[in-house]
Amino acid sequence: MGDKKETVCVTGAGGYQASWLVKLLLLRGYKVHGTVRDPSDDGKNGHLKKLANAAENLQLFKVDVLDFESLCEAIDGCAGVFHTACPVPYSSDLQDPQYPWFKWYSYAKTEAEIRAFEYAKENGLDLVTICPSLILGPLLRPAMNIASELLLSFARDGLEKVENNIDFMAVDVRDVAEALLLVYEKPEANGRYICAAYPAPLSVLVDKMKTFYPNLNYPKQISEQGFARKLSSEKLERLGWKYRALEETIVDSIEDFYEKGLLDRQAYY
Predict the structure, then answer these.
(1) Catalytic member of 109, 208, 210, 235
(2) Is 208 a catalytic residue?
């Protein structure tokens, strides 16, 4: 694994995390087959076509990840597959509004991982998984993801009160891309790897933001429980994974919001 210029497939290539992975792969000399719902939709996938080396080394395939035949076409000729797509149908009609929507997303990811390891064992496939915590960092694609919307809301909306009962750890989207490529290129990589850089209570995120951008419209009050759990990325770090400081992630995220016009540099709250 890991020879330069080999071809790999990235499912859900236009996604928040996948876009950074595609960018990294192209910069490292890989040829990439990216699966998307509609390659001609430049509103969703145009950013991929503008990446360095994309013209010669990126091919987008129209794929429904639940359609085996279309997946086979994209994977054909590839030395490896990065499966980042996660089909979770979203509906405004929630059956149980008291049950957070993201638990279904987490369940889908967990169930897919269990089934994938079972299939890999039965069929002799070399499978490694990366399990990231809350992913933060700048956007390559036009659409916002949930974590970016959260950060933007904290910087812009002046919320009266934010309550949180979830233990957050965070990691930079670019460092997750590095982790994905690292475990692909390391023959000794095996099993599953937690990819979490630092504890990130919402109060800590906001305090860090205030350090660099004191005039934004922050929540007036944040109430959250104490943090009892800490995830360890020691196994991943033993492979050579490194991560950037939380401060860098926050600054790059806020600057990205400014560049995209989501925040106004002239506004002082």
Answers:
(1) 109
(2) no
